[in-house]
Amino acid sequence: MALKIKENNGIFFIEGFINGSTVKQFKSHLDFLILYTKGLTINIEGVKLIDANGMKAFRDLYTTALMSKKHFSIIGYGCKEIFQDFETNIAA
Question: Exposed/middle/buried for 91, CB within 10 Å: 0-12, 13-18, 19+?
Fold first, then answer.
């Protein structure tokens, strides 16, 4: 399934799969947005699957946002699991 990224009122809506075949496009696009906006809010309601590559991309985006001192939020069903993954990997 193709990955779609749409913006509405400053929130970026992600639709599709975030996996090995889409993660490069996903990360590249959102890295650019983090660097050239005040912050980034991502809605993952439309995401059907996030594999290990996708989770690593979210961790990398979170790190980039922290280093750039930018706002970074993930909203929608499944966001709790993503932040639990962040906490687990930071603690390790």
Answer: exposed
- Strand, coil or helix: 10: coil
What are 8-63's pLDDT values in tens digits?
A: 999 999 999 999 999 999 999 999 999 899 999 999 999 988 888 998 999 899 89
How many whole angstroms from its chain centre is CA 84? 14
What CA–CA distance (Å, rounded) separates 64 from 42?
Answer: 15
Q: Is the pTM of this model over 0.90?
A: no
DSSP string covering 36-80, please? HSSEEEEEEEEEEEE-HHHHHHHHHHHHHHHHTT-EEEEESTTHH
Angle at 57 between CA 55 and CA 61, to 5 degrees: 120
SS3 call for 1: coil
The three-state secondary structure class of 82 is helix
